[in-house]
Design a protein that fits this description.
- By secondary structure, the chain is α/β, with parallel strands linked by helices.
- It has 16 helices and eleven strands.
- A five-stranded parallel β-sheet has the order 4-7-10-3-11.
């Protein structure tokens, strides 16, 4: 039987060698139950060259101080809330923080609109419950309960998608560091090293505001979009190369020129003006994040690889751009068509992209 290849390994698996080497050379103070010191965690996320010449690959491109604040928060008794619009690497940062601190990123709760308290607290094995009654063996722990018992980091994705009354079931866990189980007359007390990283955004529809009581239990770190054009181009390029290897796409054939054109379009539509500031633009309803730019390039590469000559072209890019921008069939289509006619049509060297996008529109 051929060896199976995992499509997306966990962070602690994909970067096991780096984590192992950092742990070996890390001589700084580590909080109890942490795999690495705060300094080593930040180095793991932001990259760098160690004293022995080992190069640590950067996982996050952005403000160093934000990551330092996030790591320092997790070393205290405050939980961490990563906030930002979709595509600002909240989940990515959350996963890598958990992998570096606890050695696992799998103690995960995915927030949804239909979630109940069991997903955050505990549930029951109903077959055992019926045969044995309420016992500890019949208890089904949540990822958060497991993290409390093991002294590890638990992650909650899309906290604001969870109904407000369910969100508030976290208050006792975060403030008292215990989880009562009244059916058994016991409580689960958190071991040192336990903490929670939650992610949230306020741009999606169906968002539930956090209560002030719950928000006070978190230290909030806002992850922004890349500050400069060059920084965003570099992020897209690096991530496209990384994902391309996993998907067996020729990442080396993604022309930097096409990435630059895509990023320029996204940044102009996000800001509501052209790069030179001379022309004001209508802003679409879509977020046009860096993550979406990466997705558009990967989609274009797949088209070029399987239905083209293998090299990303304007025709391969056009379908992805149109799909990313036009989320609302009426409002966004008008915004996109105006941008095509007023900006892209007259831009030197962009005729191929204009014609390809017009054909898609």
């Amino acid at each position: 039987m051929p060896k199976k290849t995992i499509l997306r390994p966990h962070a602690e698996e994909a970067y096991a060698k780096e984590l192992k080497h950092l742990k070996k050379v890390d001589s700084k103070l580590r909080p109890e139950n942490w795999q690495l010191s705060p300094w080593a965690v930040v180095t793991y996320l932001l990259g760098g060259t160690l004293e022995d010449g080992t190069v640590i690959e950067p996982k996050y491109f952005g403000n160093r101080r934000l990551i330092e604040v996030a790591v320092a928060t997790l070393a205290t008794d405050r939980a961490l809330l990563l906030v930002g619009i979709p595509g600002t690497a909240k989940t990515w940062v959350s996963e890598h923080l958990s992998a570096a601190i606890s050695g696992t990123s799998t103690l995960l709760v995915q927030g949804t609109a239909g979630m109940n308290e069991d997903a955050l607290r505990y549930g029951w094995n109903y077959a055992r419950l019926l045969s044995e009654g309420p016992t500890e063996k019949a208890l089904t722990p949540s990822p958060i309960m497991n993290a409390m018992q093991q002294g590890k980091i638990s992650r909650i994705e899309e906290l604001t998608r969870i109904p407000s009354d369910v969100q508030d079931s976290l208050i006792t866990v975060l403030s008292e560091k215990l989880l009562p189980v009244p059916e058994l007359g016991i409580e689960i007390q958190a071991q040192k090293g336990f903490n929670v990283i939650a992610t949230a955004n306020d741009r999606d529809k169906g968002v539930n505001e956090l209560s002030s009581a719950l928000r006070r239990r978190f230290n909030t770190v806002v992850l922004p979009l890349p500050a400069t054009f060059e920084e965003e181009v570099n992020i897209v390029k690096v991530r496209v190369e990384k994902i391309g290897k996993t998907l067996d796409l020729p990442s080396d054939k993604a022309p930097i020129e096409e990435i630059q054109r895509l990023v320029k379009i996204f940044r102009e539509l996000r800001s509501g003006k052209t790069e030179d500031g001379r022309t004001k633009l209508k802003v679409p309803s879509s977020t046009l994040s860096t993550a979406e730019a990466i997705s558009v390039i990967n989609s274009g590469q797949a088209l070029a690889t399987h239905f083209g000559n293998g090299t990303l072209s304007a025709n391969d890019l056009a379908a992805g751009i149109t799909g990313a921008v036009v989320k609302d069939a009426v409002q966004d289509k008008t915004v996109w068509n105006e941008y095509l006619e007023t900006v892209i049509k007259g831009r030197k060297g962009w005729k191929d992209l204009y014609e390809a996008c017009k054909e898609m529109s």
